[in-house]
Write a structure and sequence with these properties.
This protein has 598 residues and is mainly beta. The protein is 11% helix and 35% strand. A 5-stranded mixed beta sheet has the order 29-33-34-35-36. It has a 4-stranded antiparallel beta sheet with strand order 3-43-42-41, with no helix packed on it. The protein has a 4-stranded antiparallel beta sheet with strand order 4-5-6-7, with no helix packed on it. A hairpin with a 2-residue loop joins β21 (349-353) and β22. The longest helix has 35 residues, at 101-135. The protein is globular. The two termini are 69 Å apart. Mean pLDDT is 82; it is low at 1-76, 89-97, 229-233 and 386-392.
Length: 598
């Protein structure tokens, strides 16, 4: 006989019948079950009667059935035992099932209750995962439902010169010749490390300008104290590197006082050094229009780029950026009388954001990932960012990968990006990617692209990368403020803040242009809106009180992502200094120090 075990929905596998275990229950095994031979006539202990020979005696005799081996006997016994246990278990369950109508109703209700608990537990887990993804972003905040109030404060002697940097679970306050490790929830100072007055830690987001929140938490924090203001305060011209862990443990070492170094968020230190070529500073000739002209046959230096471990000085990688055809304005600085001066070292610039390093200067330009991968073409010394574009031509994507300019484009008046995705696919766009300032940490599987004057959505899914998902001819977005919960919030070139459905491009709501009063500054939203933060339901925008600049002050504006209504607003007399989210807690620099908002 064959008996199926009752299906267990909690067991691994699926409820498909083919995947339910089946046991073959054998009641009798020849020669084993009853203790007799293959053919004993059913008699106990009696020898079989001898058979009389028949007429076919001289024909070949058929082979007798083979006796079962010990393995077969054991398997049969095991099958029998399993079947017996299954039958007994099923009977035991049936004996405990209610037989009355009331009992059966209670059983069904209890089962439904268990299912409701299971669904509720799944929803809770999903909500926790969503919150965890949100708080892992630089723009994630725990709650913006109610107007935040000051929860704690720390006074600083020179707050305007202070910098706030996120570390894992710690708010680093750099100022007053110290680095304080602050609990972002309570404001308790966990540790303090003394550094020099002229100290740069980072990387830190640029002050007074908005844009994508792409800076990762510094782990560890690297600080560089410039010569003349070393940690001991004696002005001995030393340049000191201090590396601080999240628990406050610090290491210091001296480096060349003339070295040009940049702190990285991965515990690294980037050194830039012009090598060879003409490094002499001298005036340059300007034409009637005021444009500078370089000396005849001028050959500038190459640029050595080196990444090292900030704590030990051990090299991680290095590269040489060859000098190429320079733009004259990339080789000059201006003296106190506004006269142009040939200054190769002084004209050197850099941008470090989201794990992408860009360097640019007199005849040199390059872009790298912090691991050392070069992003631009090292053989083409005139490719971006040197060709008229100085910064932000390469950028990380919030869901992994990066974008860069298309160096093969023939029409430089219509720049377009090339997208490089983490799964290896890459594709060229007809326009430029709109990078979100704030996200909820979830990958929507697409990116938004401004093509000409309208917006399109491109797939980033593996196997479908670059495919157009939709096009919105009437959407003229210049800035993508947020990409949250299936909604994109953009600044339209007509001056309005609009929300669209990420899946279709359809309008969801439009914020009254008077709320932000962009005026003619719609193309420079970064100078009016200084960042974007979200809890998944509300979008917080720090906005200048007066876009014209005639009146100082700041507005913290909270917009409901469902309908675009303004949930609350806080007016501050302090102009924008810095607002940061650490582990979902907001902290802000004021005219007196640092405050925690919640």
């Amino acid at each position: 006989m064959t008996e199926r075990t009752p299906h267990d929905d909690a067991a691994p596998g699926s409820p498909e019948p083919s995947k339910v275990h089946t046991f073959d229950l054998i009641d009798e095994v020849p020669g084993v079950s009853d203790g007799t031979g293959p053919d004993d006539g059913g008699q106990d202990g009696a020898d079989p009667e001898p058979e009389e020979p028949d007429a076919a005696q001289d024909q070949p005799r058929e082979r007798a059935p083979r006796e079962p081996g010990r393995v077969t006997v054991a398997l049969a016994a095991a099958r029998t035992a399993v079947g017996r246990t299954a039958r007994r278990g099923g009977a035991a369950v049936r004996r405990r099932l209610p037989t009355t109508r009331r009992g059966k109703v209670l059983l069904v209700g209890g089962t439904a209750f268990v299912l409701v608990l299971a669904v509720a537990a799944g929803v809770l887990v999903n909500a926790q995962l969503r919150e965890r993804a949100l708080l892992a972003t630089p723009s994630g905040v725990r709650s913006l439902e109610a107007k935040p109030t000051e929860q704690w404060s720390i006074d600083l002697d020179d707050p305007i010169a202070a910098t706030l940097i996120e570390m894992p679970g710690v708010l680093a306050v750099v100022g007053d010749a110290k680095v304080r490790g602050v609990d972002p929830a309570s404001g308790d100072v966990r540790w303090t490390v003394d550094v020099g007055a002229d100290t740069r830690c980072g990387p830190a987001a640029p002050l007074g300008i908005g844009g994508p929140a792409s800076t990762e938490p510094a782990d560890p924090l690297v600080c560089v104290t410039s010569p003349g203001d070393a940690g001991d305060g004696d002005g001995d011209g030393k340049q000191v590197v201090t590396v601080v862990d999240a628990d406050g443990a610090a290491q210091t070492r001296e480096i060349d006082p003339d070295a040009l170094v940049l702190p990285a968020d991965d515990g690294g230190l980037i050194e830039l050094e012009p090598t060879g070529g003409d490094l002499e500073q001298r005036p340059v000739v300007v034409d009637k229009l005021g444009a500078p002209h370089l000396p005849k046959d001028f050959v500038g230096p190459d640029l050595a780029v080196r990444a090292e471990d900030a704590a030990t000085g051990a090299e991680r990688w290095s590269d040489i950026v060859a000098f190429g055809a320079p733009r004259p304005d990339s080789c000059v600085t201006y003296d106190d009388n506004a006269a142009p001066v040939l200054d190769v070292v002084g004209a050197l610039g850099w941008d470090l954001h989201g794990g992408v390093l860009e360097v640019h200067g007199c005849g040199v330009s390059a872009a790298y990932l912090l691991g050392g991968t070069r992003l631009d073409d090292p053989e083409d010394t005139a490719d971006p960012p040197a060709d008229g574009v100085d910064t932000a031509s390469f950028a990380p994507l919030p869901d992994g990968g990066w974008i860069g300019p298309d160096a093969t484009a023939t029409d430089v008046t219509m720049p377009n990006d090339v997208v490089h995705l983490p799964h290896g696919a890459s594709f060229a766009l007809a326009g430029q990617v709109l990078l979100p300032w704030a996200t909820d940490g979830r990958d929507p599987g697409l990116l938004l692209e401004r093509v000409g004057v309208h917006v399109e959505a491109r797939s980033t899914a593996e196997g479908d990368a670059g495919a157009q998902l939709w096009s919105a001819p009437e959407l003229r977005a210049t800035t993508l403020l947020a990409r949250v919960s299936g909604t994109a919030v953009v600044v339209d070139e007509r001056g309005a803040v609009r929300a669209i459905d990420l899946g279709t491009g359809a309008d969801r709501w439009t914020l009254d242009p008077e709320v932000l009063s962009f005026g003619e500054l719609v193309w420079a939203a970064e100078s009016t809106i200084f960042g974007a933060y979200t809890d998944g339901d509300t979008l917080l925008l720090p906005v200048t009180a007066d876009p014209s600049g005639s009146t100082p002050g700041l507005r913290l504006l909270a917009v409901n992502l469902d309908d675009g209504s303004v949930r609350w607003e806080i007016a501050q007399e302090t102009p924008y200094t810095q607002l940061i989210s650490v582990d979902g807690y907001l902290a802000q620099i004021t005219q007196h120090g640092v405050v925690g908002l919640g």
